[in-house]
Amino acid sequence: MYDPIAAFDARRAAPAWWSLLGACLGCLLLLPSQGHASNPDMPELAELEWILDSQAASLTGIVFDIREYDPDALVWVLPRLAAYMELIERARPGLPVALISHGDEMALLTARAARTHAELHRELRRLHARGLTIHVCATFARELGLDETDFPPYVDVVPFGPAQLEDYVQMGYGHVSLEITW
Fold this sequence. Notes:
By secondary structure, the protein is an alpha/beta fold. The protein has helices at 4-30, 45-54, 73-91, 111-116, 118-129, 138-143, 161-170; strands spanning 61-66, 97-101, 132-137, 155-158, 173-177.
């Protein structure tokens, strides 16, 4: 037999039950995931983790390269690079890390840009002090009207960025290309 009082009590309790279920599901979403591959702020993370795991025995370092047409690309790349370096340092302390710039982004690596982008260069110097080797391609630098005297001491100017990248790969470095994200 239908009991209107019990039905009323069940309808009143339902929102509380759904709220509790919603809170539990919300907490599940906040738990850290096992992998970070879906993190849009770190699109190269899955590739880097794969290199660190699959090439662990033969890996002698990690080389990142960037080749963008955006002169401000380092503004969005540098935070990712810093996060990747922390991950590398936790996974493989002492593993050498290098960055090769051979695109328009190298304009922000110049000594002149150090005055206008002081925070960016503070971070570059911090990463360099932690072991990041920073290279720029002299061939592309010439296209921008730059030469090795335009770069600060912590930026190494190499004759040809792609050849430097290939040298690192031949030495057993894992290669990760830092790309723009849209």
